[in-house]
Amino acid sequence: MxxxxxxxVAHVDAGKTTLSESLLYxxxxxxxxxxxxxxxxxxxxxxxxxERGITIFSKVSxxxxxxxxxxxxxxxxxADFSGEMERALSVLDYAIVIINGLxxxxxxxxxxxxxLDHYHVPAFIFxxxxxxxxxxxxELLDSLSQLSPHIMDMxxxxxxxxxxxxxxxxxxxxxxxxxxxxxxxxxxxxxLYPLYFGSALKxxxxxxxxxxxxxxxxxxxPQKELSAQVFKITRDERGERLVFIKITGGRLHVRDTxxxxxxxxxxxxxxxxxxxxxxxxxxxxxxxxxxxxxxxxDYIGSGRVIHSxxxxxxxxxxxxxxxxxxxxxxxxxxxxxxxxxxxHLKLFDDHAQVSLMGEVQIDIxxxxxxxxxxxxxxxxxxxxAYLETxxxxxxxxxxxxxxxxxxxVHLYLEPLPQGSGLVFDNQCQxxxxxxxxxxxxxxxxxxxxxxxxxxxPITDMKITLLGGKAHLKHTEGGDFREATYRAIRQGLKxxxxxxxxxxxxxxxxxxxxxxxxxxxxxxxxxxxxVVNENNDITTLHGEAPVLFLTHYQKELLTxxxxxxxxxxxxxxxxxxxxxxxxxxxxxYDSESDLxxxxxxxxxxxxxxxxxxxxxxxxxxxLPLYSAMKxxxxxxxxxxxISDEELKRVYERTYGPIDTKLASDYxxxxxxxxxxxxxxxxxxYLIVDGYNVIFAWDELKELAKQNLGSARDKLIDILMSYKxxxxxxMILVFDAYKVPQNKGKSQMYHDMxxxxxxxxxxxxxYIESITKQMAGQYRxxxxxxxxxxxxxxxxxxxxxxxxxxxxxxVISRSKIQKEEFERKNPQMHSYAFEDLKKS
Length: 838
Fold this sequence. Notes:
Elements: E1 2-10, H1 16-26, H2 47-52, E2 59-65, E3 68-74, H3 82-89, E4 94-100, H4 107-118, E5 123-128, H5 137-144, E6 151-153, H6 158-162, H7 166-175, H8 180-188, E7 193-197, H9 206-215, E8 227-235, E9 241-249, E10 251-253, E11 257-258, E12 261-262, E13 265-270, E14 273-277, E15 279-281, E16 285-289, E17 299-301, E18 314-320, H10 326-339, E19 346-347, E20 352-356, H11 359-373, E21 377-379, E22 383-384, E23 387-390, E24 394-400, E25 407-415, E26 422-426, H12 434-445, E27 461-470, H13 477-493, E28 497-511, H14 515-521, E29 529-534, E30 537-545, H15 546-559, E31 565-575, H16 579-586, E32 600-604, E33 607-611, H17 616-619, H18 643-654, E34 683-688, H19 689-693, H20 697-705, H21 707-725, E35 728-733, E36 744-748, E37 751-755, H22 762-773, E38 778-782, H23 786-794, E39 798-800, H24 802-823, H25 833-837
Parallel strand pairs: 1-3, 1-4, 4-5, 5-7, 6-7, 26-27, 34-35, 34-38, 35-37, 38-39
Antiparallel strand pairs: 2-3, 8-9, 8-17, 9-16, 10-15, 11-12, 13-14, 13-16, 18-20, 18-21, 18-22, 19-20, 23-28, 24-25, 25-27, 28-30, 28-31, 29-30, 32-33, 36-37
């Protein structure tokens, strides 16, 4: 049996619920066909839905037809509840787009069509109310052509249908006909949108639609591994939390665990009724109980989290009644915030702020709070929901290192064209483990990151992971969450941000006689275009700020004596004209936002301390990748060369090696040396990096798993050691086997790190540099290479073996620790503590 999930989507009053009722009745699933105007439909069982005659919440039903099991989701049609509709689209196999035959394509229909395109959902189109319309099929088809040229009346000839798809054309030319499978494939690929006409209320055209769903739909290949998409969170009449999911692969059983939470029940819903099942499989839509952590949009198993493309453009402040318990008020709103994520709930000391789509949603919210939680609320007039973006690219750095925690993240933030949203990419340029890279990419996408000017969400930028660092022992998963969030905020503070305000693309339908009044009211914004002038009615298209249009609706009704209609076609964002005024109005201080810090946490003397955003670059542990040249990946491959060969190479380069006696280094002590001629040279420690790594047991073991991690750890150790020793330092790594490598030198804080060029070993580089620096500095070379030690001695440098360096590192670290403990004696906090130690 073929199992598919279908969704009913349309502009309000097009007849979605009526068509759902007709399909259920025609197939014998229900015995009575209800009517919206009679307030007795099977799916609109909510009190407010029946009173208003609109769908507010998506509903699930199913039916069997021939060898098919269809699960239907009836979605809201009113624009104020578009978020509920969009979440349903993410789990659909096919959509049924219902068009009101009395009106044709309307404003919200275009929004729905764009969402179907975004989610790549194939669609069947049913033009409803054909028993009432005065339009012909040809006129309605012409109206539909503005959605897509691939919409085809299926009563047309096969030749016309075949013309919409190359594969169908080839088949038709070869055979003179089309197979059902070929048409189904074209529909699945969204090359064809089948069109049917009828009347859902009178069950006309419903059989033809069911036959089309049987003949022209394809089921996806079965998947063994469990995967599922969460598309809805709600509560039953007893307050039990229900998590609605579409299973896209594998099987799910009662008492299975999801993120350490056990499933108590698996429910199959048919309208407001449900049955309990022990398991659910691919293409089932079920509700789970016992799961508290999953939210709408989350994915179980392999898949990506779904984020809504719709965004309410107005913010409203909600005040509880004077008698209300503030904690109960907040907890009630949190429940509704789970069910409608687009509310973007924010809680303050004595009120809350939410995002809402319009007046109808405000009324519904008030009624829900009263009916479900017995809370009387007031809602203010609202303010614009701003967004923020950036002007110039920047590298943001986040560091999180309280005691026994460690992480650092580098992100590159780039501005994108308006309307691009947020784009995320992983171009990690160092050897950070893949699991940590995946964590960072998850943290980038798991929350709404706020800008630093008004505290509004950010948009229109690409955020790329450049690099990160973890600690072998002390890094935990949550550390990278902190570092990632801080990296974004630090980057925003280090560049110039821009405030964006929402605009509507609108359609105005007005009496022609009111045209001059409308133009006058819109004179501060781009002049609207006349798209249709039909006798006494004129249709205009234009764009203007949301804040203006929201208030203009009442003025329009007055100026047109109630005959004017304003439709919002689309929302987009553009820079505000007076940014300073908006900043003052919002009164947001990024440095006081403790939930979204701009600075980082570093560690000193065993304690974490806060570093402001503008000082983070001075203390970060990784270089700025955006300022570096392209970095190569270097792999150490030990090469064994005989002493004779090294000696031959040296003598050819620098001449014969003179054997000196100890007396050659001794100079008689002068009778008197002027204090002006005494010179203490600065010390330079030059370290053969890979030689040291493979001489230290701990680093050697780490290098077997990840050479880059061993290299990073050595750099950290030597940075601390350099501070203890108080010297300059050059750390040299072999890169002589990297093709076309020109070599590279970079500063890590005040330590120079050198990667040798192609054909140049670390030994050769050290020999060259010691010869150049001889006499200018006190040179100490750390290496265990025997011949190398002899060569640098010949240049006047002191040598120390890798093992000796390790012992000195340990010794100096211990001395510093003892000195710290001496200067910071332990404060006794417990009674008889001294007795216990003795």
